[in-house]
N-acylneuraminate cytidylyltransferase (Carlito syrichta), 190 residues
Amino acid sequence: MDSVEKGATTSVSNPRGRPSRGRPPKLQRNSRGGQGRGVEKPPHLAALILARGGSKGIPLKNIKHLAGVPLIGWVLRAALDSGVFQSVWVSTDHDEIENVAKQFGAQVHRRSSEVSKDSSTSLDAIIEFLNYHNEVDIVGNIQATSPCLHPTDLQKVAEMIREEGYDSVFSVVRRHQFRWSEIQKGGNVL
């Protein structure tokens, strides 16, 4: 999961162009009026899965079944089962992906054609999402193509952001591969 935080420091403005809040999410609190006066509310952490319908390699790969479950269903289950998100969203431009997302209990952000192009970046789609969802303070960008993601992985990330003061967290995988390839020269393999 990658985290995108709105307004982490006073020197950075958030994607909506409003002044930064100036405090990290761990310390940022909002007072509630009425009966809970003085009670502080933690920042709204939203899971966001980007799932475009126009994949060129494998069309609609995000809803292809893997072990009987749509690919995106695996990460939606992990996000929901983690219990750390105030909301779980799928950003998509496709009706079938929207239907699957809703079947798994996610909310859907219909992304614009401007951020649904092959040349659009994940950051473009995240910024658009934040522009429409003012309630969200922190975005956990979860890759739709990570079926082995476990809820405890997401719990650890949320803890790192909320309790340990990290402003961003991302996962990596060590990859071992050969750095050579066959070259044929005059009928001989080198």
In short: The CA atoms of residues 4 and 139 lie 5 Å apart. The radius of gyration is 20 Å. The first helix runs from residue 71 to 82.
